[in-house]
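Data card: per-record layout.
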Amino acid sequence: MPVVRGCNMPDELLYDVDNHIWFQELGDGSVKVGMTTVATAMAGKLVAFTPKRVGRSVRAGKSCGTLESGKWVGPAKSAAGGEVMAVNDDMVANPSIANDDPYNAGWLVVLKPDDWGSVVSTLLTGDAVTAPYEAKMDSEGFAGCE
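The structure for this 146-residue chain is written out next.
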């Protein structure tokens, strides 16, 4: 598993570095979407998560939900467009679980992507995520997760 400045990036996930989002293919044509450890560390303790509702559509590059911390409010932008199939109700009730466990308990939504084939080729996995994330952290003035 790559670790970039103390931030874990599990090998089995696909990363949209620009938006600090990860995707996990679920095997049924849907994908789970979440924030990276970099995103949760930069945001600080999350205090609110307002997802798009089940059945709603998300346009590629647009928000699948809004996140809020004490110092930041913003969209969770999904590289994939599609229909919201599930929402993490535990995240709605207790958003800070993403700070503690962004890759398991802290997922955001499950999408049924419209054109996953064209999106997946733009995402990074494994060690390929290290150099782009280093550059992204430099450009955002972020020292790391530790």
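Known properties of this structure: Residues 30 and 112 are 4 Å apart (CA to CA). The radius of gyration is 14 Å.

See the next section for split statistics.
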